[in-house]
Design a protein that fits this description.
This protein has 169 residues and is mostly helical. Helices cover 78% and strands 0% of the residues. Helix 6 packs across helix 7.
Length: 169
């Protein structure tokens, strides 16, 4: 048996032994069977991609799957939150200013990409960066809104800029 065959067999066993459990675990957390099934599939795809060149020897497969699925679940909820907020902004816009469906889709995708770029930064760092870059607020006002010093705001924005620069290709 080749290494690829062994890996395929490991993934098949992991799937057969744990798919039903993982789907039920996600359904309990999400309350939605269809989304839970999608996330379970995404979890197994993520596991498969992570182990394409290495042998899969998991001592605690359910703990591993729960960790991977939990991260995907957090991303799912964050994405939903961004989409919900964007729809609220659109709903409050005058009808004449609402962008085309194509522009809306592009803007939503850009928002999700920005959120992904800022992933890993603290909440206040993200807030300071968004306020400075997108709302174009002066640092003094950002400091007041966040309840931090002006120096902290400067550090937050600089940290976010460095982080984003490192994320660019």
């Amino acid at each position: 048996m080749t290494e690829a065959d062994a890996l395929a067999q490991d993934v098949a066993m992991l799937y057969q032994n744990n798919h039903r459990w993982l789907s039920a675990w996600l359904r309990a957390k999400m309350g939605n069977k269809a989304d839970a099934e999608d996330l379970a599939q995404d979890t197994f795809i993520r596991v498969l991609c992570a182990h394409t060149s290495t042998q899969m020897a998991l001592r605690e497969p359910r703990a591993y799957l729960a960790t991977v699925a939990g991260r995907l679940l957090a991303n799912f909820y964050r994405r939903q939150s961004i989409e919900r907020t964007y729809l609220e902004v659109l709903a409050n816009m005058p009808q004449s200013e609402i962008p085309s469906l194509e522009t809306q889709a592009l803007m939503k995708e850009a928002l999700l990409e920005i959120d992904q770029m800022l992933d890993g930064l603290g909440h206040k760092v993200k807030q300071a960066f968004v306020m400075a870059q997108f709302e174009e607020l002066p640092y003094a006002e950002i400091a007041e809104r966040l309840g931090v010093s002006l120096r902290s705001v400067k550090n937050y924005v600089a940290r976010a800029m460095v982080h984003c620069s490192a994320m660019l290709p």
